[in-house]
From TrEMBL:
Residues 3-145 form the N-acetyltransferase domain. The keyword Acyltransferase applies. Keywords: Acyltransferase, Transferase. The keyword Acyltransferase applies. Transmembrane segments: none annotated. It comes from the Bacteria. InterPro entries: Acyl_CoA_acyltransferase, Bact_Acetyltransf, GNAT_dom. This is N-acetyltransferase domain-containing protein. It comes from Deinococcus aluminii.
C-alpha cells in the first residue's frame, strides 16, 4: 500500500535518474542526469513528487520541469512546463498513483500561473494523460544538432 506522497529532494536525484533511464544500456546517462536533477531541484526549476510505500520504498514518481519560454501570442505567461519521469513500479500499477502524481505536477504549474504544460508519452500512458485533458499536438517539429 502507498503510505505517502512527498516532494522530491536533491538526495532523490539518483533514483529519479533511474526512473528516467531504467535500462542497463542507459546506465552511463544516469549520473549526468542525476546531477542536473539535484541542481534543478535546488533552483526550483524541477519539481518532483514521489509515492512511498509502507516499507519506505519509492514506488512511483513524476516530475515537472519549469521552462522559461517567453510570452507568446495569446499567452502572456513567460513560463511553460513539461511533465517528465512518470514511473510506477510494476507491482503498484493500476492503483491511481501516476494519476495522483501527475495531478500534483499540474497543480504545481497552476499555482505558478503556468497555463501550458506538455509531455511525451508511450502508448501505455496515453489514456492516463488524455483523461487528464492532454491533447496531441501535430505542430511540433524537432531537429537534433
Amino acid at each position: 500500500m502507498c503510505r505517502v506522497i512527498r516532494p522530491a529532494r536533491p538526495a532523490d536525484a539518483p533514483l529519479i535518474a533511474l526512473h528516467r533511464y531504467p535500462a542497463g544500456a542507459d546506465a552511463a546517462d544516469r549520473p549526468v542526469y542525476a546531477a542536473w536533477v539535484a541542481e534543478a531541484l535546488e533552483r526550483g526549476v524541477y519539481l518532483g513528487f514521489l509515492a512511498v510505500a509502507d516499507g519506505g520504498e519509492v514506488v512511483a514518481g513524476a516530475g515537472l520541469i519549469l521552462l522559461e519560454w517567453g510570452p507568446t501570442r495569446g499567452d502572456p505567461q513567460p513560463y511553460r512546463a513539461r511533465v517528465v519521469n512518470v514511473w510506477t513500479h510494476p507491482d503498484f500499477r493500476r492503483r491511481g498513483l501516476a494519476r495522483e502524481l501527475v495531478t500534483r505536477c499540474l497543480q504545481a504549474a497552476r499555482e505558478r500561473g503556468i497555463s501550458r504544460v506538455s509531455l511525451g508519452t508511450s502508448e501505455m500512458g496515453r489514456a492516463l494523460y488524455e483523461g487528464l485533458g492532454f491533447q496531441a499536438s501535430g505542430t511540433e517539429l524537432t531537429l537534433r544538432l
